[in-house]
Amino acid sequence: MAELIEISGASYAPSGVPVLDDITFSSSARRIGIVGRNGSGKTSFARLLAGLIAADRGSVRVASADVARDRKAALGAVGILFQNPDHQIIFPTVQEEIAFGLLQMGQSKFDAAKGVAGILTRFGKTHWAGAAIYRLSQGQRQLVCLMSVLAMQPKVIVLDEPFAGLDIPTAAHLTRVLAGVDATLVQITHDPASLQGYDRVLWLEAGRVAQDGVAADVLAEFSQAMQQLGEDDDLSDLAR
Ligand SMILES: Nc1ncnc2c1ncn2[C@@H]1O[C@H](COP(=O)(O)OP(=O)(O)OP(=O)(O)O)[C@@H](O)[C@H]1O
């Protein structure tokens, strides 16, 4: 049987620069972490998994959908939350923003309005419906993004460090919301501690899979390697 996430020999090399190289990863685990150093390809992996960029070689499927080519199916299969909500939000009000994804999925205006009302009710935020997004705090804007993703009920949600810029209580609140979500989470992070209780971890290095396996094992090796690098001076080398 196919796994929920099926990535096979995927490479991504915009203008000839190899950013992701021959990535093969398949999993139906519920909680997946992606770790790696700056520039190792984590964000590109997230975008590839969400179908926002297409692999030059290989294939990327989520819930059987070819996410880069079948965008309508992809919206129901995988959602993504970025670090900066302002890179995601395009509409002036909360209800328009949440409705957008539902309309993109092919829902009627009536059904999309019902979906918006449903998700706002679930989060106790019906009074936000007509609110101007520019007046919300960054944490509130991130919650709008999260509600927009959840309204589409994707099977997989990719988190590209969405709480990195938030204060501790706001991050804790949103982390709690996510912990209760009935979807597979793929979380990109620099912080192994935020992957506590996760099932599987993929460690990327220079666009390739460095390790992939049981979360506790991979995280232990990753943490040790990062600590070792921190003790060395590896900032000296300039890229060729
Ligand atoms: N469209 C592109 N064209 C050229 N180079 C790119 C492109 N996209 C990404 N890169 C390069 O690929 C490498 C990996 O980038 P990516 O943002 O995926 O890494 P990352 O692991 O998320 O990094 P960070 O932890 O710093 O956010 C970087 O060197 C980046 O500059």
Tell me about this structure.
The protein is α/β, with parallel strands linked by helices and 240 residues long. The protein has a single domain, classed as 3-Layer(aba) Sandwich (Rossmann fold), CATH 3.40.50. The chain has helices spanning 42-49, 71-77, 94-104, 109-122, 138-151, 168-179, 215-231; strands spanning 5-12, 20-27, 31-36, 57-62, 65-66, 78-81, 156-160, 184-188, 200-205, 208-214. The strands form two sheets. It has a six-stranded mixed beta sheet, with helices on both faces. Strand 7 (156-160), helix 6 and strand 8 form a beta-alpha-beta unit. The protein starts with a strand and ends in a 9-residue tail after the last helix. 35% of the residues are buried. The model has no long low-confidence stretch (mean pLDDT 92). The structure holds adenosine-5'-triphosphate (ATP). Residues 14-15, 17, 19, 36, 38-44 line the site of adenosine-5'-triphosphate.
